[in-house]
Amino acid sequence: QVQLVESGGGLVQPGGSLRLSCAASGFTFNSYWMYWVRQAPGTQRDLVARISSSGITEYADSVKGRFTISRDNRSNRLYLQMNSLKLDDTAVYYCNKLSQFWPWGQGTQVIVSS
Prior knowledge:
By secondary structure, the chain is mainly β.
């Protein structure tokens, strides 16, 4: 069964940093693009970043230059390094393959607050 387990979130002050991790299992992780998405309270999920199986990366304009997505295909893990965090980065962060009917994990909560 496919499982996606996010971790690494927490409470940080503006300008701080966090490193999010995603442990993936139940599919051939190294064959697919993987995505980080986030959902602020009362909003829809928004794309944050994506990475190809070989390491090509793309970012939403709102996080470009501040966040870095990476992956370790040997350990089936996806990462998101988040620097220079802003109040608007507050959200629950999820990793996913974004295929139809793909399950969602519980996400990991990031709260940026002074």
